[in-house]
Design goal:
Elements (H helix, E strand, L loop, with lengths): L12 H4 L13 H13 L23 H7 L3
Length: 75
């Protein structure tokens, strides 16, 4: 039986720069790349990226800081 294992991306630039994430396509940091490789090795899997999978759409907050998103969030 085949298995599909989905793992949310590891550390990316938006994590360390206090930027909102979601659909913003920020690259993985060196640590994030290492984390992905470690998980792939541990599970004996090849790491594959699929740009067809998205997180939440942060709308106008895309590319902005988390502080900006909190301040400008509408209920």
């Amino acid at each position: 039986m085949n298995k599909i294992i989905l793992v949310q991306h590891f550390q990316s630039e938006h994590h360390i720069n206090n930027m909102s994430g979601g659909w913003t396509d920020t690259p993985l940091t060196d640590l994030g790349k290492t984390q992905a490789e470690i998980v792939g090795t541990h599970l004996d899997l090849d790491v594959m990226q699929d740009k067809g999978l998205y997180e939440i759409n942060t709308g106008v907050a895309a590319g902005k800081t988390k502080d900006w998103a909190r301040t400008n969030r509408k209920p």
